[in-house]
Design a protein that fits this description.
328 residues; 9 strands; 9% strand; two-stranded parallel sheet; 55% helix; 16 helices; alpha/beta
Length: 328
């Protein structure tokens, strides 16, 4: 019985330690991994929402850094919040966020989806799915389903409930270098907008080089997961009676003007139009992105704070133009 008691105590201690670490990490988004700060914080913002919205701003980091809800609302006259996360969340995370909102609130008037061209081909990993704060098995219950394997489900379980295992490397770094905790946090304002204050022209040039090297003269293609996710969002839009507006992310001017990249980007626009098809509830807002110079960006799709007022208002005006045409 002594051995059994020891085993029980050890197991209970392990469970309690994992629960404690999990609570601390969830209470301080990004402490365990700065790249996940936006993901955790934006889901927490959605979970703690206290009133319905006119517009949901969903998408990746180009939208998180580029779309200021206050400026968007000045044009549209409604109320919006920014729930955009990160590129590795792919498109399916936006679909999951949308359905999570619809489970609690009446349908919004519109959803604005801002996804960079090179994010559509990606898929959301089981590791990141483990951070989604929904009931176990949500990936089978939502409209945008994802058929995770048994191994994937263990990875989700580990990342959700066993941070001592899944985050052991980062936790070791925090123990050795506790003064870096403050450096790991990323701040957001109450609207979910994450402004970038300083341009990084050298990062833009490096990002541009690799974008051209990887994508010039290539044909764009969305992943199967992204295609299914957009289809799920359009299905929800038709069922609940709201519209989805697909916005083009900000773009570096020199990248856009590269001849080989333009061929790729043209195939991207054609691909988006095919994905949207003849849906009466989904709309591509523009045929060309808003362009910015190196000194106005952090990378080829992240604009600095001073540029976000113009971009946010531009996108809002594009939305109103589509809605005005629909009323005629």
């Amino acid at each position: 019985s002594g051995i059994a008691l020891t085993v029980i105590v050890v197991l209970a201690s392990g469970v309690l330690m994992n629960l404690l670490v999990r609570q601390v990490l969830r209470s301080h988004p990004g402490m365990d991994n700065p790249s996940y700060a936006a993901f955790d914080a934006q889901w927490q913002r959605l979970d703690s929402l206290e009133e319905e919205l006119d517009t949901l701003l969903l998408g990746d980091s180009s939208g998180r850094h580029g779309l200021n809800p206050e400026e968007f609302d000045r044009v549209t006259g409604g109320r919006s919040l920014n729930f955009c996360t990160m590129g590795n969340a792919a498109v399916i995370n936006a679909a999951w966020q949308l359905e999570a909102y619809l489970r609690r609130w009446p349908a919004p008037q519109r959803v604005l989806l801002t996804i960079v061209h090179d994010v559509w081909p990606r898929t959301l990993s089981p590791q990141l799915a483990g951070r989604v704060p929904m009931e176990w098995g949500f990936w089978n219950d939502l409209r945008a389903k994802e058929p995770y394997s048994r191994g994937d489900r263990w990875t989700i379980f580990e990342n959700r409930y066993l941070p001592l295992m899944s985050q052991h490397k980062t936790l070791s770094e925090l123990a050795l270098y506790p003064w870096t905790i403050g450096e790991r946090r990323i701040e957001f304002n109450r609207s979910g907008f994450g402004p970038i204050w300083r341009p990084r022209p050298e990062n833009v040039a490096d990002d541009r080089y690799w974008q051209i090297k990887a994508l010039a003269n290539q044909t764009w293609a969305a992943s199967d997961q992204s295609r299914r996710s957009l289809a799920a969002m359009m299905s929800l839009a038709e069922e609940h009676g709201f519209d989805i507006y697909v916005a083009l992310s900000p773009m570096n001017r020199e990248l856009y003007e590269d001849e080989g990249f333009q061929q790729y980007y043209a195939s991207y626009l054609d691909g988006l139009r095919r994905l949207i098809g003849d849906s009466p509830r989904a709309h591509l807002l523009s045929d060309a992105p808003a362009l910015y110079d190196d000194g106005e960006m952090q990378n080829t799709d992240h604009i600095v704070r001073d540029m976000t007022t113009g971009y946010s208002r531009l996108v809002a005006e594009q939305v109103l133009q589509v809605e005005s045409r629909a009323r005629r």
